[in-house]
């Protein structure tokens, strides 16, 4: 039976006439095989040919998947980048063998390769001009959002996608809803880009931007934000829940590249006089249309910010450094590492705290109770820091150097947090157990705050080191969040039909999907709940066993209450957690060919479509069902007596009560299921599609 995936609710007729935002315009330029005259918008599935695709230590698993598809030739070697950065301190023979395999594969296929020690892949992608303003660059790593800091649309892909790009040059993407984040005012002195994103994660902590693309706006405020700050902010839009975080191309960025040109020289293949002239031309043309649609608009007044710290163990908890200083939070370890905050300006900010006078013989020493680890984001940055005397000041203060790579940020190598310890880091994630023991506490702060805390022996601010008063934003941060009204009335039982012609359906693709809705009434149903972890790394689990254990950690009665052909409907953020593909394939094994939810984890969505499972995202429908059964006895899994019919050619979902022929109680327009996606589904998923192309 054919299956498909993740169609977001969208009114079709109104969208045909509106302009495009910057995200949609960049996707338009990188989309392939679009119908003539097709203008892409939020909700559309598109086949995309990214400018570049980076993978790091996972390059070998991607290579194994690539070869498992029967592929023998990289479609475009110039499109692929391999960079070793995650486990570079691991000198075991097993890891060194993997690294040799990656290097040999890259040499065999003429792929650009960067060895361990050259730097973190995302930083290399920026330094070497792969991620470049107004292009679309992906990576098989969640912090591909970083590229938005230099005006590139950067977004992560899973390993199957990466293998598909290696083999065919392209993969698929569904354009997410786009949120506008407007920055106003000017940052106070010593407040950094990290403080902005930490504040945003903590202040807007109710999933306002979950699975959105973000476009940062505010011409005056952004003009005064250094590019390094933009990279930090874009990097951590991942932790905020977004799929991308895009800054505009402005004069500040153009000046950054003119400076970069002096570093790389005139003959660089991607950063040169010709590409910069073309960038300047395109930056005047490729801007959001005046009538572009944004799902919501969030604003923050930068002038009301101070030093902010996330934690412990959550980016959704945000406090001022002033408040935490009053609580005397002692620390054991401090970190200035990672793709988030280990660029030259970050190292300088820390050095200015440990050595404010500039005299290396008169530095503020790291507290004897604290270990302070530093690693530049790339070997180029470390060399620049040495040339400027920055590195030496940090070492003189007692910092412990690590090689350019991910290291403790990902819980690898030296200096990890041990049970009972407290750490503060300029990295991106402080999830429980990520940087060491699950019994440790982790906080996030700017490089200056991390350096000050290392000196003080507790979480504090640089002003304390300087003998000054800590700014504490007594008036509070000024923010707003405005949701854009939808173009349709989702509650109507007779919503207007699309003004567009019916979608053309490929041979072998069904025109209608039907089934009874079975309610799994919970938000954040995670992949462990869908498919138990104890089976995840067993490669020989038969389909029958997968069907038996499907959803058993969520509800042991699920198997007895469902049957083949049912349609599961659940709450918001369905499929959160790990990236295991079995979360999708076990549902298929159970005979569940369609899942409806208020929203989905993006990784689950990608794994679903890559395995030919259908999901529909209709938040109004789950709310209606919850209202219907609000007073009923609690059941984790409930047969609803509501039936769903999806009219694929006309992009409409119809809900009836009692039977498929019962009274209509709800109708909803959904996104078009274009032929590019239909073709992937007809082939049984992305791997089958790739094999057909080979």
UniProtKB/TrEMBL annotation:
Highest taxon listed in the record's lineage: Eukaryota
Localisation: Mitochondrion
CDD domains given in the database record: Homoaconitase, Homoaconitase_Swivel
InterPro entries linked to this entry: Acnase/IPM_dHydase_lsu_aba_1/3, Acoase/IPM_deHydtase_lsu_aba, Aconitase/3IPM_dehydase_swvl, Aconitase_4Fe-4S_BS, Aconitase_4Fe-4S_dom, AconitaseA/IPMdHydase_ssu_swvl, Homoaconitase_mito, Homoaconitase_swivel
Cofactor detail note: Binds 1 [4Fe-4S] cluster per subunit.
Pathway the protein contributes to: Amino-acid biosynthesis; L-lysine biosynthesis via AAA pathway; L-alpha-aminoadipate from 2-oxoglutarate: step 3/5
Cofactor annotation: [4Fe-4S] cluster
Domain Aconitase A/isopropylmalate dehydratase small subunit swivel, first and last residues per copy: 501-619
Gene Ontology BP, a term: lysine biosynthetic process via aminoadipic acid
Family annotation (PROSITE patterns): ACONITASE_1, ACONITASE_2
Example of a GO MF term: metal ion binding
Catalytic activity entry: (2R,3S)-homoisocitrate = cis-homoaconitate + H2O
Keywords: Amino-acid biosynthesis, Iron, Iron-sulfur, Lyase, Lysine biosynthesis, Metal-binding, Mitochondrion, Transit peptide
Domain named Aconitase/3-isopropylmalate dehydratase large subunit alpha/beta/alpha: residues: 24-457
Assigned EC number: 4.2.1.36
Coiled-coil ranges (or none): none
GO cellular component, one term: mitochondrion
Record function comment: Catalyzes the reversible hydration of cis-homoaconitate to (2R,3S)-homoisocitrate, a step in the alpha-aminoadipate pathway for lysine biosynthesis.
Family: Belongs to the aconitase/IPM isomerase family.
Name of this chain's protein: Homoaconitase, mitochondrial
Organism name: Maudiozyma exigua
Gene: LYS4
């Amino acid at each position: 039976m054919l299956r498909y995936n993740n169609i977001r609710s969208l009114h079709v007729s109104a969208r045909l006439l509106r302009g495009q935002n910057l995200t949609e315009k960049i996707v338009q330029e990188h989309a392939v095989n679009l119908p003539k005259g097709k203008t892409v918008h939020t909700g559309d599935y598109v086949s995309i040919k990214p400018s570049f695709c980076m993978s790091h230590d996972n390059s070998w698993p991607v290579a194994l998947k690539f070869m498992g598809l029967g592929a023998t030739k990289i479609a475009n070697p110039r499109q692929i980048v391999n960079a070793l950065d995650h486990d570079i301190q691991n000198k075991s023979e097993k890891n060194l063998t993997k690294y040799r395999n990656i290097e040999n594969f890259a040499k065999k296929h003429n792929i650009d390769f960067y060895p361990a020690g050259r730097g973190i892949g995302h930083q290399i992608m920026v330094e070497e001009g792969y991620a470049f303003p107004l292009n679309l660059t992906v990576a098989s790593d969640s912090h591909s959002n970083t590229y938005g800091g230099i005006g590139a649309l950067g977004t992560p892909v899973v390993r199957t996608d990466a293998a598909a790009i290696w083999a065919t040059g392209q993969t698929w993407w569904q354009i997410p809803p786009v949120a506008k984040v407007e920055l106003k005012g000017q940052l106070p002195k010593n407040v950094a880009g990290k403080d902005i994103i930490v504040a945003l994660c903590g202040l807007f902590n109710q999933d306002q931007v979950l699975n959105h693309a973000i476009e940062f706006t505010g011409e005056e405020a952004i003009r005064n934000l250094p590019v390094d700050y933009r990279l930090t902010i874009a990097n951590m839009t991942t932790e905020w829940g977004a799929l991308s975080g895009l800054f505009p191309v402005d004069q500040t960025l153009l000046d950054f590249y003119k400076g970069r040109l002096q570093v790389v020289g005139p003959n660089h293949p991607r950063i040169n006089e010709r590409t910069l002239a073309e960038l300047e031309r395109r930056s005047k043309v490729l801007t959001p249309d005046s009538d572009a649609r944004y799902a919501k608009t969030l604003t923050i007044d930068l002038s009301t910010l101070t030093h902010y710290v996330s934690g412990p163990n959550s980016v959704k908890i945000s406090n001022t450094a002033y408040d935490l200083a009053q609580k005397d939070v002692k620390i054991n370890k401090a970190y200035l590492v990672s793709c988030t905050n280990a660029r030259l300006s970050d190292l300088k900010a820390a050095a200015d705290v440990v050595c404010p006078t500039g005299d290396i013989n008169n530095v503020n020493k790291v507290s004897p109770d604290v270990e302070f680890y530093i690693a530049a984001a790339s070997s180029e940055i470390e060399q620049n820091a040495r040339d400027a005397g920055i590195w030496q000041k940090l070492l003189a203060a007692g910092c412990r150097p690590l090689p350019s790579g991910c290291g403790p940020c990902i819980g690898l190598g030296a200096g990890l947090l041990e049970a009972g310890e407290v750490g503060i880091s300029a990295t991106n994630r402080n999830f429980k157990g990520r940087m060491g023991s699950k019994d440790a506490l982790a906080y996030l702060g700017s490089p200056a705050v991390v350096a000050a805390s290392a000196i003080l022996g507790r979480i504090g601010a640089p002003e304390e080191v300087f003998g000054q008063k800590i700014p504490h934003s007594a008036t509070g941060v000024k923010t707003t969040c405005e949701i854009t009204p939808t173009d349709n009335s989702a509650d109507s039982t007779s919503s207007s039909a699309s003004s567009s012609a019916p979608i053309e359906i490929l041979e072998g693709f069904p025109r209608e999907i039907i089934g009874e809705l079975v309610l799994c009434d919970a938000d954040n149903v995670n992949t462990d709940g869908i498919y138990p972890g104890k089976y995840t790394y067993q490669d020989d689990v038969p389909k029958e066993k997968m069907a038996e254990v499907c959803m058993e950690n969520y509800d042991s009665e699920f198997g007895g209450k469902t049957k083949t052909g049912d349609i599961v409907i659940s709450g918001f953020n369905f499929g959160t957690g790990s990236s295991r593909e079995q979360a999708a394939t076990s549902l298929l094994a159970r005979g569940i060919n369609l899942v409806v939810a208020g929203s989905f984890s993006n990784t689950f969505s990608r794994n679903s479509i890559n395995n030919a499972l259908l999901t529909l995202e209709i938040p109004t429908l789950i709310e209606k069902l919850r209202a219907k059964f609000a007073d009923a006895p609690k059941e984790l899994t409930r047969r609803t007596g509501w039936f769903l019919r999806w009219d694929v050619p006309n992009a409409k979902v119809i809900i009836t009560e009692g039977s498929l022929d019962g009274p209509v109680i709800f109708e909803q327009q959904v996104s078009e299921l274009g032929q590019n996606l239909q073709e992937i589904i007809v082939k049984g998923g992305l791997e089958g599609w790739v094999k057909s192309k080979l």
